[in-house]
Structure formats: C-alpha cells, structure tokens
Amino acid sequence: MDEFQEILQDFLVESFELIEQLDQDLVELESRPEDLELLNGIFRVAHTVKGASSFLNFDILTHLTHHMEDVLNKARHGELLITPSIMDVILESIDLMKALLHIIRDTSADAGIDVSECVKKLDKVSSGEIADEPVQAQVHVKEVVEVIAPSKEPESELDYENMDDNDIEAEIERLLKNRQAEDKAKRDSKIAAGESVVSLDSDEDNEESGDFHVPVVVAPVHVPPVQTTPTPRVSRADDESMKAAAPAKKEAVVDQTIRVDVRRLDHLMNLIGELVLAKNRLIKINDDVEERYEGEEFLEELNQVVSIVSLVTTDLQIAVMKTRMLPIGKVFNKFPRMIRDLSRELNKKIELEIYGEDTELDKSIVEEIGDPLVHIIRNSCDHGIEIPSIRLEQGKPETGTIKLKAYNEGNQIVIQIDDDGKGLDTDMLKNKSLEKGLITEKEADQMSEKEAFALIFKPGFSTAAAVTNVSGRGVGMDVVKTNIEKVKGIIDIDSELGVGTSMKLKIPLTLAIIQALLVGVQEEHYAIPLASVLETVRISKDEIYTVEGRSVMRLRHDVLSLVHIGDIFEVERILDSSEHAYVVVLGLGTNKLGLIVDTLVGQEEIVIKSLGDFLQGIEGVAGATIRGDGGVTLIVDVLALMDIAKHVKTKAIPEGSSASAQTSLEKSKASDYKVMIVDDSKTDRTIMRKALEPLGITLIEAGDGQEALNILKQGDHNFDAMLVDIEMPRMDGYTLATEIKKYNRYKNLPLIAVTSRTGKSDRMRGVESGMVEYITKPYSADYLSSVVQRNINFKSEF
Amino acid sequence: MSDKLKQIINKQQEAQNNSLIKAEEVVQLVGFIIGDEEYAVPILSIQEIIKPFPWTRVPQVPKHVVGVFNMRGAVIPLIDLRLKFGISAKKQSDETRFIVMRDGDEVAGFIIDRLTMAIRIKKSNIGPAPESMHGEDTMIDGVGKQEDRLISILKVKKLLARDF
Questions:
Q1: How far is B145 from chain A (nearest CA, A)?
Q2: Are A185 and A215 in contact (CB under 8 A)?
Q3: How many CB atoms lie within 10 A of CB A567?
Q4: Helices (H), A324-448
Q5: What is the CA radius of gyration of chain B?
C-alpha cells in the first residue's frame, strides 16, 4: 500500500468514527443548545475533517467543512443559538459530508456532489440571516459557560469563550499537532504489526471517536498520553457532576485496544469449532471407556482430564466469541437522528428512549440488524404514533414515545421496540390483505390475532392510506422479516388497539457454533438449531388431522401445520413407527411449523460445516456437523423447511419398493387414473359414474365398505381417489375410512365423502376419520367432477 | 585417459537424459475395477484410498450420490461409481474401497469395487477415447493399452463436477 493510500485509509476510518458520534451529539445539542461541551466536540469533528481533507486535496469536502466550521464556531462563541431551523442546515451539511466521504471511500476522489446550495445556507446562517433569537442566546450561553467551562477543562484552563480569533487559531494549531503525532504513532504501530488493519470498532473506539485527544494506545508501540484538553464523550447521562469527573478518570485509565483483522478472528473461530468437535468426541469416548472399565482407578484421572478440557474449551469458545462482539449501541446510535428527522417531517412529536445499548452481539449479526430496525422504527413513527392533536384527544401525552431496548435472554439477545401509538387493528389488516389478494377469505377467518399481526410482513402489504416518503411503499417490513430470518431470528409482535405495539426480535448470539436439538427419523439423525425450536410435544397419531391434504394438529388455541421430516428428506419408512410421535414446534420470523419426528435424541453443541460446492443448494439442509461418534449429521435449514412445507402435501408413502414403483407409474392417459365409487345405491353409483365418465378415467364400483376394503386389500388396482357414501350396510363410510387409513400405503389416498348428511358433527366425524372432501347430495355433475379432478391431480391435456 | 573420462561422463549424461525423457513420457495411474471393467485415474489426483466406513445419506440428490462422510473433520461427498456408470448396486465386500480424489478445491470420495494396481504406462500407449465416446460429455480421457488389457482412463475433473 503506498503512503497516500495508507493515509487515506486512516482518514476514512477516522472520519466515519467521528461522524457516527456526531449524529448523536447533534441531536442532543438541539435539546441543549447551550451545551458548550457538545458544541466544542462537534466543532472539532468538522475541523478535523476539514484539516485532513485539505491535506489530501479533497477540495469540495474542504470547502463544505470550512463553512460548517464557521457556523459551529459562531455557535461556540455564543454568537449564534442553535435553533431547529439552523440545526436542519447543519444536519444537511453533515449528510453531505457523509455522502462525500462515501464517495471518497469508493473512488478515492470527492467529485460528483454539489455542495454549493448547502454552503450558501451555511453562509446565511453564519451571517445571522436564519438565526432566530440571537440576543437571548447570548445571555443563555454565557451563564452556562461560567458554570461548566472551568470544571471541564482542568488541564489547559482554556476558556474558548474569552479567546480571540488568533488564540483559537493557535489552539487549533496545537490540537492539530497533537493529532498528527497521534496519527503517526498509530501508523507506526500498524507498520510494526506488519499488515493493513481492518477496523474492528469496539466499545473503546467509540469513546475515542468523540474525543480524539486521548491517544489510542496501540500495542505493541506504547504512546505516552499527550497532555491536552481532554473532552469526554458526552453520554446520555445528564448528570453534571459525572461529566466533570469524567476527564480525570479518563486520564488515569486508558483502555488498551488493538485492532485485529476480522479474517484472523474468523480463522480463530474456525479452529475453536474444530476443538469443540474434538471435545464432543472425547466426551463420547470417555463415556464408552467408563462403561467398559467400570471401577478402574485410571478412570477418575481420565474423567478429570476430560472435564478440564471440556471446561477450558467452552471458556475459550466464549472468549473468542466475545472478541467478535460489538455493542448494539453501534446500531442504535443512528436512531436519535432518524427520529428527529422523521418527527419534523411527519409533524409529530416523538421521543426515543434507548436502553441496553451496551448489549453485545456478534459482528456479523450487528451488520444485519441495522436495516430491519430502521424499517421497524420508521414504521412505528409513521403508522404507530399519532399526530399530536389526535393523541391529545385520546388523552395520551402529546409526545409519542418509542422505546428501543436490548437485553440478553438465555442464548439469545432480544431487541424490543415499543411504541405507544395506535396499535395494530387486526380487522383492518385482514381487510387490506384481502383487498390486495395476499390471503383468501377462508384464511382470514381462521387467522389468530398473532397471525393477523404477522400480515404486515407479507410482501406487498402496506397499511398507510397514503404512501409517504417514510413508509407505505410496501417493501419495508418484508425486508425486516427476510433479514431477521437470515440471522435465524424470531419476530414476536404484540399489540393493543389504541395503546401501542411491541415488537420483539429474538436473535441468536452467534452463528458459527450453535446449540442444536438432535432428532431421529427411522435410523437417521438430523440437527435442528435450537434457536428456532419453540417447544416439543409428544402426541399420539390420532391427534393429527388431515385437512385439504395437509396435516395439522391443535396446539392449545392454535392450529399448527405439520410436516413429517421423512417427507422432506425422503426417508424410506422401513421401520413401523409407534403410535406416538414427537412434534418439534419450529418458529422463525413470525412463522410456525410442526415437524413430526420419530424420536428426540438430545441437545448438543454443534459446529456448522458447509457441504461444499458439490452438494450446495440442497433444499432444507443448512450444512452438516460432525458428531461425537465421528459420523456426519445434517443440519436442518428451518427457513427453507418452512418453504418446502408449504408445497409438501403429505405425499404417498410407498410401502416397500414394489409399491413405490407402481404408484410412481407415469400417467400417460386419462384411463390410467383410477377412482373407486363406494355406494350401496345402484342409482347413486350410476349418477357418479355419469358425472365422471366424460373425464375418461377408470371407474371401479363397490356396493359397501367391506367390498371396497376387499378390493383395496387385493391390491390389483392403484387408486387415485375414492368416493365414499356414509350410510352403507355392513360397513359404513366412517369405519371404511378409518380402516383404510390404517394402511401405510393408503394413508394419503384422497377419500371424498358423498352423502346427504349435512350436519356439522357429521362433517367433523368425516374429517376425523380421514375424509378430505365432503360433497353433499344433491350435487351437480360438474361439481363432483371438479372435486375429483382436483384430488387426483388430473391433467386435462389428454 | 581424459578422452575416456569424457566418454564415460557423456554416456552417463545421456543415460540420465534418457531416463528423464522416459519419466516424462510415463504416466502413473491407479487402476481399479467397477463392474467388469478396469478404470484408472492419475495417481497425482488421488488424495487417499481408504477402507469403507459409515456415511450419512443426503436427500434430494441423484442415486449415485450416496451421501457425505467425515474425513478428519472435513465433510466430503461420497459417490458410488457403479451407480454413476449405470451398473446395479452391489453389496460392499472386503475389497471395496473409497478413493478420495482432488482437483483444486473440489474433493469427493468414490466407491469402487476393488483396486488393481499402480500402473506405469507410456504416453505413447494411451490412445484417444473411442469415437462413439467423443464429445464434451465423455468421462473417458483416453484408453491405455497394456500387454493384453485395455484400461479406461477417467477425467478426474469430470468425475468431480456436479452433474445434477
């Protein structure tokens, strides 16, 4: 890397860090325009960027920052009070500055953005044309300065207020020198480390960014602290005494940080992964040895060693994971500014409260959750919080509050976004979705409250009556779901009409090494990421109902769709499964799905390994892991699984290979389709025959249930569907259906009830016994024909 | 005397050169049997040959991709060459082996019926693949003639390419 490039890199890393802090400070400044401390900090950012950019010949950037500096300098001297309209101009100029920096990062030049408009505005501000109440401000600032300034700058005892322009220039000169020395030290240390360093911003970096006088101590070169005017980063704490105490503390304890290439950390993480696998294996072997040599003396020693290794491995893993952690404050920082802009734009009064910004998350996840949060908060501002007049009418405080919380919960981190706005109206959501054709009427009727809330995540959904600049274009919330699912997170929405909405994003701490639930089907094992497992339930097989070709079960108050893991992973059913099964309830985003498995094996820590190029893109498989016994276990991709489950109608389960060969015979002509008509009345049979004959399919008749069952048992025909009367001698329709469903081979044979019984309980009994459709007599020939066609997947082209 | 010495030195050099040329012309292969045929792959493309051990089935792949197995921490696909070549599956015997082949970053294990031997064969004894098997699709790189038998030399790149 040549020298210019290196300086440029440093400049960019530095500038982005500074700007991040800047946004937060500026919003704070608006609420406390007289805070000299904040003003000084902001001024210095503009100044630093200006100095560096002029050195690097970025003329446009220099031009812009120069004018910003003018305005800020005036404000600093109390000649200007920061009013919201002035703040708008300053924020605009900072946005431009950011845009320029981005361009510089991408192209190494600062062309392409016109700053003249903004510069004009800045000039107007500094010449006092936009300023609102300068006189009052003067007094205001003076007062505060008297109180704050001395306590703030104990080292230099400089009072900017009383300095003339020359002094300030001199002061700036001095600051710049310090800065250069510091930069040099930084560069030296990097050269010493022998590589280009990718920024891994940590907590400490953040603090420095607001306060560049405290030197970064970068190992291995030690830089003695330079005596300067330390100005602590102003935190949200309004406590004056704390602020005053901060500089002294800062001087004493300088956090030692080192910048490390992310790739090195990734490599370290991979190595730890291997170690975890080896540990699992060691534990397994230890168990085996224990069994075989029970009571031997050396066992105890072995036990000790194994437990130490396992303990240290776990600690090591946590330690390495922590090095990759970033405080979520990195993401939260940009929201105060966003809220401020939005509330002005929307003419609403909104306050943002942030809690738990120190909560830490894996770097890769932090990068993914920024966008979803932006969309959620925008949505809350736009659709959630009402305009002040309406709020007052409803007896709420005029100012709406959005609370942004982050906290740990077990192996997950929860990000909670609460607003006290109007809440979600389920009826309205359903109507909208119906209008847009996102759901059917039937779905709308059956929807639980939570499912209705989840509608806002459907692609193409937008509830705002008018599309605003902020939201309502119907893309945003969809993105939220996609991104959260990408990091294996779960979204949980709660809302009360008129009271507010609360959204919880539950996100796993890290993605490389995860806890998994191991399940068994036949003789195979699969690993399901525990973060996506909500619960497991043991059910008996009669609790599974088939509705429209899909398996469902009742889970407390909800209906849960079910899918058998064997259907998804094409597991051959060799073993006769018992009467009981386990359902693993999976949750991802806002979706839920029940996965039927034969056995639950246990919980294990697994390391995700890729299947490689050769086997990439297998649906439903996220990767593989190596188990304690050295075998490979596939990891279930819950997201893909939910997709697949939508299309999997409980497929015909072949009983042995010969049956599968028969059922998989391609239908090449209409007469290859076979439908059995079971009815005791000859007339009824003939009516059905007449209705179906035009299709050209093969029809076989049976006079009652027993006869039908015998035909099936002979196995001469492969039926695609059966039309079953309910009232029949010898064996009625319900019993027949129940009997048929006992056969694995016919488990998924569509049974269509054709009856004059229309009562609700009759229908329910039909569903319980395994009927998929219910046709009531009298019926039209067309209707019968269409129902049959649908159930046998009839291809009309013959 | 010095003339003689020169002659000897020359002869030695010649001999050395000859052997070098010979080495360049000889291809080293590993032969194995699948069904009734003998096949071979260049020895340098083979990472290792191991006795069969358990593997894990993978769904949604063609029949000849039988699954994945763990080779010292790496998850590697396993392909049954009998099935790939359209021969019916056979129970594994004592002679069954996994050949792990590598081409660049691509690695896969292949199930073969039995190994024959390491073969040194002159380049000049390797003919092109039969006419009928020409084209992009063929897996056969060439046919080696050795004494009384013919050995089909397989394209490792083609074997390791994803074919579904």
A1: 33
A2: yes
A3: 20
A4: 329-332, 335-346, 363-379, 388-393, 426-435, 441-446
A5: 20
Q: Is the peptide bond before A327 cis (omega within 30 degrees of 0)?
A: no
pTM (2 d.p.): 0.49
Copy the structure tokens of residue A795.
């291809």
Q: In a 10 Å sphere around its CB, with 0-12 CB exposed, 13-18 middle and 19+ buried, how is residue A225 labelled? A: middle
The yes-or-no answer on residue A718 being catalytic is: no
A656-791 belongs to which homologous superfamily?
Response regulator (3.40.50.2300)
Amino acid type, B121? I
List b or e across A445-483, with b for residues whose CB sees 16 or more CB atoms inside 10 angstroms.
eebeeebbbbbbbbeebbbeeeeeebbbebebbbebbeb
- DSSP assignment letter at A120: H
Q: What is the mean pLDDT of residues A386-402?
A: 86
* CATH architecture classification, A262-323: Orthogonal Bundle (1.10)
Question: Which residue shows structure tokens 């910004």?
Answer: A357
Strand order, beta sheet including A773-776: A698-702, A674-678, A721-724, A751-755, A773-776
- Residue A447's contacts (CB-CB under 8 Å, 6 or more residues apart) are A426, A430, A439
pLDDT in tens, A131-145: 444 433 333 433 333
**Which residues of chain A have a Cβ shorter than 8 Å from any chain B Cβ?**
274, 277, 524, 568-571, 609-615, 618-621, 624, 626, 630-634
3-state helix, strand, coil in chain B (%, to 5): 25, 45, 30
Q: Identify whether the C-beta of residue A500 lies closer than 8 Å to the C-beta of residue A514.
A: no
Residue A224's pLDDT is 42
Identify the CATH number of the domain defined by range A327-505.
3.30.565.10
Q: Residue A245: what pLDDT?
A: 42
What are the boundaries of each domain within chain A? 3-232+240-252, 262-323, 327-505, 513-647, 656-791
Half-sphere exposure of A665 (CA within 13 A, CB side): 15
A291 touches A326 (CB < 8 A): no
Question: How far is CA A500 from each of CA A156, A791, B82, rounded to the nearest angstrom?
Answer: 50, 45, 65
Q: What is the ipTM of this complex?
A: 0.77
The CATH T-level fold of domain A3-232+240-252 is Four Helix Bundle (Hemerythrin (Met), subunit A) (1.20.120)
Mean pLDDT, rounded, for A755-779: 79
Q: Tell me which of A522, A621, A626, A632 to substitute to probe the interface with B (most B C-beta atoms closer than 10 Å).
A: A632
Please state, in angstroms and rounded to a whole number, the distance separating the CA atoms of residues A367 and A677.
61
- Within this chain, domains A3-232+240-252 and A656-791 share the same CATH topology: no
Q: How far is CA A475 from CA A334, A381, A462, B113, in A?
A: 21, 16, 8, 56
Q: How far is A655 from chain B (nearest CA, A)?
A: 19
CB A583 within 8 A of CB A596: yes
What is d(CA A181, CA A213) in angstroms, rounded to the nearest whole number? Answer: 11
* Domains annotated on chain B, with CATH: 26-160 (2.40.50.180)
* A563-621 pLDDT tens trace: 888 888 887 765 555 677 889 998 877 788 899 888 898 888 888 887 877 887 788 88
The token pair at A290 is: 């224990």
The Cα of A609 is separated from the nearest Cα of chain B by a number of Å equal to: 7
- Superfamily of domain A513-647 in CATH is CheA-289, Domain 4 (2.40.50.180)
> A323 is written with which tokens?
């090095």
CA angle B19, B25, B26 (to 5 degrees): 90
Mark yes or no for CB contact A610/B70 under 8 Å: no
Here the tokens at position A228 are: 């300067």
Which residues in A214-347 belong to E strands, given as ranges? 325-327
Among A415, A339, A340, A413, which residue's Cα sits nearest to residue A379? A339
Closest residue, chain A, to B59 (C-alpha): A569
Query: Could you tell me which residues are beta bridge partners of residue A465?
Result: none
